[in-house]
Amino acid sequence: MTATVGRAGPPAGSPSAAHRAATPAPSFAHLARLSDDTGLFEHARHAIVRRRHGYCTDDVARGLVVTSREPEPTGAVLRLAECYLAFLTHAQNSRGAFHNRLGLDRHWADQPGLGDWWGRALWGLGTAVARSPAPWIREEALVAFSTGAVRRSPAPHAMAFAALGAVEVLRRHPSHAVAAALLSDAATSIGAPPADPGWSWPQPRLSYASAALAEVVIAASQLRHDGPLLDNGLRMLAWLRDVQLRDGRLSVVPAGGWERGAVRLRHDQQPLEVAAFADACATAATVTGDAGWETGVRQAVGWFLGDNDVGTPMWDPATGGGYDGLTRHGPNLNQGAESTLALISTLQHARRWS
User: Fold this and answer.
1) Which segments of 48-115 does DSSP mark as H helices, in order?
2) pLDDT at 3 over 70
3) CA-CA 20 to 30 A from 244: which of 104, 138, 166, 259?
4) pLDDT on residue 354
5) Angle (CA) 277 165 146, round 5°
6) 64-121, pLDDT tens digit by residue?
7) Crossing angle for the helix pair 116-131 and 57-69, to the nearest 10 degrees
8) Predicted structure pTM score
9) Residue 172 CA: distances (Å) to CA of 68, 138, 147, 179, 350
């Protein structure tokens, strides 16, 4: 899809006063605009949904995460959560795997699998189990989570996303053996960071949603008696934070990733990366009681509000949608599901730390 790029704002390092204004409350208006009675459409051009691209489990699962996180959801938000849960249960087969792509014709374009979408589906289901105020949602989500959580993916990222769901389930159901086993196996899959302070990361490459891996290690250290060392997860997150700060503002690893020893590029930065960082910092702050991690949440919020490398807001206040990426020339003005969900997720944390 062709990116629609806006003009750059103020020079980097000099965000306007508007960027530092009071943090807005998360809006579900654009998420509703992208949704119908089946699920959540993946793409938009500007703020208008592009239906021909259909739906994907990845985004619907993240939709269930943010709608379940609302402590007092409106009727409209609760209906979105019900819709997303129904989509995920439809996507799941009897062995716990999930389809990912559903066409506008309501036919699946793939076979059930255990990729990132499996992990994110379990993350969404686990969040619904733990946080939804609706008992009928919690009950159905627990059945679907328990079915999927017995499976294992060979991909560390997929395991990390699934483990985030297991963390949620264990906080409500501490004796849930399937969730505990999944969390333990995910932490093992991620591994421990090397002692080298120049690259304190278990893999030789940073790719996407990197902070989610550190978050799982941090959470597993608290929820599993035989889990990894808390210091491992905190060291991973602290290193990731340090390499993603530029003049005190967040400058996340771009979509192309960053390999050890290679030159690191600055663009195109993705909202997904910022939201994952906010999630991990919020978890670190909760686990350790260290208020220093709250700064990471504020930096993530600031990135969306304009405290970024280009000095421009990464959302549209008129629609409530998040822009799809930060290029060297300004934002990609398309407001797809992934970027909007990342915006909502980050602003949800800001209600606690603003």
Assistant:
1) 57-69, 75-91
2) no
3) 166
4) 59
5) 170
6) 999 999 999 999 999 999 999 999 999 999 999 999 999 999 999 999 999 999 999 9
7) 20
8) 0.94
9) 14, 11, 17, 11, 23
According to the model, what pLDDT value does residue 22 have? 82
Name the region of 13 (left: φ>0; alpha: ψ -120 to 50; beta: rest).
left
At CA 348, angle to CA 171 and CA 318, rounded to 5?
155
**Pick from 6, 2, 23: nearest CA to 301:** 23
- DSSP single-letter state for residue 13: T
Which two three-digit tokens encode residue 133? 């105020």
Going from the C-alpha of 130 to that of each of 139, 141, 142, 230, the distances in angstroms are 10, 9, 9, 23
Q: How confident is the model at residue 225 (pLDDT cuts 50, 70, 90)?
A: confident
Please state, in angstroms and rounded to a whole number, the distance separating the CA atoms of residues 339 and 337: 6
* Structure tokens given for 73: 């959801």
- Write b or e for each residue in 92-131: b if 16 or more Cβ atoms lie within 10 A of its Cβ, otherwise e: beeebbbbbbbeeeeeeeeebbbbbbbbbbbbbbbbbbbb
C-alpha–C-alpha distance, residues 161 and 170, integer Å? 15
∠ CA(326), CA(18), CA(28), 5° rounding?
65
What pairs with residue 332 in β-bridges? 5, 325
Nearest in space to 30 (alpha carbons), one of 282, 301, 353, 333:
333
Output the CA–CA distances (angstroms, integers) from residue 82 to 77, 133, 143, in the order listed.
Answer: 9, 12, 15
Nearest partner of 217 among 187, 241, 254, judged by Cα = 187
pLDDT at 20: 46
Report the distance separating Cα 204 and Cα 193, nearest Å.
10
